[in-house]
Design goal:
The protein is of the alpha+beta class. It has 9 helices and 15 strands. The radius of gyration is 21 Å and the shape is elongated.
Amino acid sequence: MGARPIDLHLKGFSALGADIELKEGYVCATAKKLKGSRIYFDNVTVTGTMNVMMAAVLAEGETVLENSAMEPEVVFLADILNRAGAKIEGAGDYNIVIKGVSALKPLDCVIFPDRIEAGTYMIASAITKGQVEVASCVPEHLESLSQKLRDAGVEVEEGETSVLVRGKDLICPVDIETEVYPGFATDFQAQFMALMTLAEGSSAVNETVFENRFMHAAELQRMGADIAIEGHVAIVKGVQCLSGAPVMATDLRASASLLLAGLAARGQTSISRVYHIDRGYERMENKLSQIGARVKRLK
């Protein structure tokens, strides 16, 4: 995936008054008391926004985060912190304002649905030309993916808390460009590329978030995919079918893309280093087996 720097996290902590040191390969941050500040993120960062927001909750005074991430996960975290006694306004918008409090109170909460897991199963339905209802999700969080699937000829019906996906025999080629929310999520890129390997025509996949997130392309090529990498753009020419092959997972979403490609391929596909999958999917092989997939974890 390339570099994933934490400089914006550290810049935020430092602006709040923390002392940052690098000791023997570890980042050490210390502070007697954090103080509110105005912080501008040079690039949109989801975990950076969340980390600095959490730190600012107990800082003295007011903190303003500018160019904040707008992802649903940021909004959910702010809502939970507010329920615990924090004073956060603007989560989901460009600017977030946090007024520090002296303490938070404990609470019980239910973690909201994982939109990337839900979207992966939507693509699984499309690539296998099946029909799958993804329940207990938030369709609004999946709008960018739903639209691209419709562009590919897939039927997508949105309910209040579910999405019904019907795959079609003909998959239309669709260009995608990864963006920050509410644009097309980079975490869907690998899975959607797998879908495009079976489209009737050529599509372009433009990765704008990470510098090296095409490592799954070489593994898809082992299965017969026709993919050419040109810088941060992958040109995918659809083929009639994929063939099962031994492939290696390189990261979380790459693992999912290879599993989806294996479901649609002729023959048997074996995926090594599947521990990556467990970082973002709970018992994925079991869930897929329950809806008709022939997938088994060997170890």
